[in-house]
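Teaching assistant here, posting this on the class forum so everyone can see the example we discussed in section. The complex has two components, and the goal was to see what a joint structure prediction looks like when all of them are supplied at once.
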Amino acid sequence: MHIAITGAAGFLGNKLARQLLKNGKLLGRSGKPEAISRITLADVTAVTGISDPRVHTVVGNISDPQTIASIVTPDTDSIFHLAAIVSGQAEAEFDLGMTVNFDATRSMLERIRSLETRPRMVFTSSVAVFGGPLPTSVPDTMATLPQSSYGTQKAMCELLISDYSRRGYLDGRTLRLPTISVRPGLPNKAASSFASGIIREPLAGQAAVCPVHGDTRMWLMSPQQAVNNLIHGHELEASKFGFTRTISLPGLSVKVRDMVAALERVAGVDVAQRIEWTEDEAIKRIVNSWPGDFDTQRATELGFTSDEDYDSIIRAYIHDQQTS
Amino acid sequence: MHIAITGAAGFLGNKLARQLLKNGKLLGRSGKPEAISRITLADVTAVTGISDPRVHTVVGNISDPQTIASIVTPDTDSIFHLAAIVSGQAEAEFDLGMTVNFDATRSMLERIRSLETRPRMVFTSSVAVFGGPLPTSVPDTMATLPQSSYGTQKAMCELLISDYSRRGYLDGRTLRLPTISVRPGLPNKAASSFASGIIREPLAGQAAVCPVHGDTRMWLMSPQQAVNNLIHGHELEASKFGFTRTISLPGLSVKVRDMVAALERVAGVDVAQRIEWTEDEAIKRIVNSWPGDFDTQRATELGFTSDEDYDSIIRAYIHDQQTS
């Protein structure tokens, strides 16, 4: 069985790749678990640190059709399409966001369609497709009113993947991820970058800026939970999806001040005091447009899962850092 | 004041052009009604039958950037973008639908953006953006789950126009039109074509096929009401739109059997008996995925209006035919 992952140099793609290599199997065209014989890891930068004979790497920009052609080949059974320009950057660089987040996804769908191989594709969307006046808990039937270009591009891809799937060009599954926390590594240009930074940096002995109000409610998921749900989304039978291939994943609804309180409980007062509260209007405008809580009935019925509490997310992050 | 209308050879674009020429004025950049000095009527076929010194015509395909450049010029103040491949054809010819319904709209938005003139644009979307399990009456907050490629393309354009407007590249307004009934002229490839055909053809002494069940509930608007609402949508202050530029227009919710009953009341039993009931699965699949009733609170608050009853729609159609 041949798999491709885009955005594989990113931490989530990378973590997914490791998990798949470890699992060794994934549901194949036979409808049964099949041994993974090849994983193509694609990104604009080289994917490092994974040494496995099953791994092939593609370094290139997915806005280039040649790159897409080398990622999606006639023997590609499944694709995890995670590559994206993050929210803050897509807002600042409109054309870049359109090209990578929308056009490249469409090119990939067209490549798949032209091959007539109908692979499975798991695509990651985001809570950023929502905005405007929202109920306290966002239901599965909620209209998408993105208040950012990133959210707009993701919502357009959701529609396209559902239509291509309905037409039988591929077997797509779009999972709307909560904000991932705690991401390891460096801050990025996502408006939600702080949701990891305010935990990660203090734990590393560094100061971190929290650019939003403590009352801001975030919809969160740990990296491991995200990987588990991406794989679960792949394994589901196509017939279970019904009228749309898009699913809002379950998450944890936590206020920023309660994230910090959890950090204090897990790592101590001194660590939590490394956070500086300096509001940033550009980040606030985007983050405050996102819903902080969902009623993800459909995802729960389909067997997707959420983290237990934020304390255990922090503890898992600390454990991962110590063992990696 | 300079106006452009795409799809101007279509009956709705044509009717709109005549109405605007008759009115002579439209809200201009001054924020006040301004005299219409030029209307550019664009379509793939020549627009005929309108003789007025203010009219300029562009014949060309809007998927050609050259055509778009001649429709949207630096002195274009307002655009009514009505050109589209209809639902049945967009389903049968996927690439054509994507090119005309989505790519051409995007090219037009990019043309507008490059001019930096920020014109008003009224775009027509459709009830076809909805589908899947729906409440009896569809609220303004309902998720778009199109079950056709046409609906998908329209929903993608809605998102793009809201984002371009939010970014200040233009002042867009997307109106989701109910099914227009009674359209004059010939049947077309829209899945909803019958909703005019079952009235128009019997009134002309011809047989008409009704491809759906009599219990099918349709969301309808007369041509004159549609023109009034398109103009109203243009005249509204941008600030009234809030978090999205997309609005579901109010309509009349009528069962197909009650449309026929109205025809019988207005034109007699003999006329209504010219309808043959022969169900067509392809048409039923698309039409049955559309909602038959809406709660259009937002549109009503913004002053959009619906027809009084279906009998008066038929009477207005008969009157128009006799006087045109």
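For the discussion questions: The interface with chain A takes residues 94, 131-133, 140-147, 149, 152, 155-156, 159-160, 162-163, 166-167, 242-244 of chain B (CB under 8 Å). Chain B has a mean pLDDT of 96. Think about how each of these relates to the inputs above.
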